[in-house]
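Please describe the entry underneath.
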Amino acid sequence: MFVQVFSSVAIIALVLIQRGKGADAGAGFGAGASGTVFGARGARTGLSRATAVFAAVFMLNSLALVYLGRETVAAPRTILDEVGTQAAPAVPTPDAAPVPTAPAPAKQ
């Protein structure tokens, strides 16, 4: 959970720090001209790479948390359920034959 929260906060912070599309270095040449100066992808900065890495960590961690959280949980049980399933202690009846015991070892 810590990795999930940290990666989401990092993505939010990195996106807010980055400049918009029109604020690239080529924006001084006119509106939309930055695409022609730096190519179709624009200038690839360290901030955008870090954002991509944290996004990948976030997605992989999300899949891992879903996989680990799939285990089935037993239905909750109450004290009344426990009392109903316990067997009553065996109480010998008076007409039952005595249980034979092993003879005591002979003294020498």
